[in-house]
Structures are given as C-alpha cells and as structure tokens.
Amino acid sequence: MDAGTSSFTVMATGQIECAEIPDCENAYLKFQIVAGEDWQLLDGLEEGITQAARVSQGIDKLLVWNFPIDVTFKATNAFGWPQLVVSVYGLDGFGRDVIKGYGSTHLPICSGRFNLKLNLFKPQSSSMFQGFIVWS
C-alpha cells in the first residue's frame, strides 16, 4: 500500500462456547475465518480445531468447547468482510469422522459484545442405501 491509501483494522476476540446437537454424544469442531482478497491477517489463527467434547450430563445436553478465538485483520474496503465458518464432526460406530453439522456467520460490523448463534446444517444421504452405509 502506498502512503495515500487508507485502511482500517478489525479485531475479534471471543470463544466458540458450545453446541446442542440431537443424537450426538461426542464431537469436535473445525473452524476457519474466511475473508476477502483485500483483507490481511495481522495477528491470530485463521483456522483451528477444538478438543473433543462429550455431551454434558445436565438437562441442557450441550457439547462444551470454550475454544478461544483472537484475530486481527487489516483492510482497505469492507468487501469480503470476515466470516466464521464451522464444521462439527463426531465419530460413528466404526471410529470414522462423520459430519454432524456446518454453518457460518459474519463477524460483527460494529464494536461491542455479542452472542452469536449459528444454525448448523447437516447433509442428508442421497438414498436409503447410502444412509444405511453411513449409519452410525
């Protein structure tokens, strides 16, 4: 960038707390923070993986990770605003990784404290036979 180009900085600090996934006893989460071409990562990790979590014994039945996120970006325009993309995986009866859900959300566009909730989407098998093969 030359001296005449202005830029701004976006900092996001927080954590991936928990998930409520029916019929899921244990899972881990992969995350990635995706941004446009004009965005430069100054500090932090763009992607990571959490520890495995077992569903809590309480009434709420949550998978708790409490995984920290701390990133700083620099950009010259808002196009390609950073998004948090998550994929939740669990193990099937044979010990294979199986997708339990995936989702994404943009990082907040103004300063402050936020509780972001993601709806997770889970792919369905294309046929009953496929569903039987991957049944866990």
Tell me what you see in this structure.
The chain has 136 residues and is mostly beta strands. Helix content is 4%, strand content 46%. It has one helix at residues 128-133, and strands at 8-19, 26-34, 39-43, 47-49, 53-54, 63-75, 83-91, 97-106. The strands form 2 sheets. Strands 2, 4, 5, 7 and 8 form a 5-stranded antiparallel β-sheet that branches. A 3-stranded antiparallel β-sheet has the order 1-6-3, with no helix packed on it. A hairpin with a 5-residue loop joins β7 and β8 (97-106). The longest helix is centred in the C-terminal third of the chain and has 6 residues, at 128-133. The radius of gyration is 18 Å and the shape is elongated. The mean pLDDT is 90.
SSE string, helices as H and strands as E: EEEEEEEEH
Structural class: mainly beta
* Tally of strands: 8
Envelope shape? elongated
Cα distance, first to last residue? 52 Å
Helices, by number, come to 1
Question: Strand fraction band?
Answer: over 45%
Low-confidence stretches: none
Q: What is the residue-averaged pLDDT? A: 90
Q: Quick one: biggest sheet?
A: 5 strands, antiparallel
